[in-house]
């Protein structure tokens, strides 16, 4: 049987936390639920303390200085404290479905498989949250990939280097990893990214570890959509969106250079980074830089971010 540590970073999620924890703690495969409280300003800490006192499988931690460090550093602390052989994540306003570990129980019998990912659905908790989500993401019922994949194909798909469309990112809520694989790859979340640290982690994980798709045609977890979801607040290609994307792709660019990735991968990451770098520029300077970069790397006009340049 799998022994799984479920890591839940907690920040101002008091109204959702009990449902999230109860969706995870009952699985036989779950050895422990690790709550890492990140200096919430609501009653989250009190709820964490109550839950931990009621069930020995639930463990509560805070950063040593009791300050707020963001989701990346908070998940890193959870990984450090985890004692299970497998690591999963769950956002404090989301929850697992009963089939969450059905694929994992079979796929991890193969020692080659270091991580398994699946699909997540959406649960509209407020009408405002629903409207904001649907404006940005239409009415996509699943966050998933379009076809089964494993190994390097997963990494190539995430970088849009496959011959067919791989699909959107899979979500941390639907990812299970061998802790030994994280240790071998020396992989942690980039604590300097306050947003997109999950996407950054997933791409790096897909390169360093052998991932395999599990249940991708139906949800194994649900994302709670409400008024305070950060994912719905940033307008695509707004200055704030461009700046956050720039920091995210710079993290990947620096990583690709440090790890000396094959030139095909480094170039794709560089072009994505450069598109957001160009988006920060204004006026004539911007268009001159676009022309110069286009002459050096014509492929930049073929990236999925190409329309970003002219805004």
Automatic annotation (TrEMBL):
Pfam families: Glycos_transf_2. GO terms for molecular function: hexosyltransferase activity. Keywords: Glycosyltransferase, Transferase. It comes from Chryseobacterium arachidis. InterPro entries: Glyco_trans_2-like, Nucleotide-diphossugar_trans. Residues 5-131 form the Glycosyltransferase 2-like domain. This is Glycosyltransferase involved in cell wall bisynthesis. Gene3D superfamilies: Spore Coat Polysaccharide Biosynthesis Protein SpsA, Chain A. The keyword Glycosyltransferase applies.
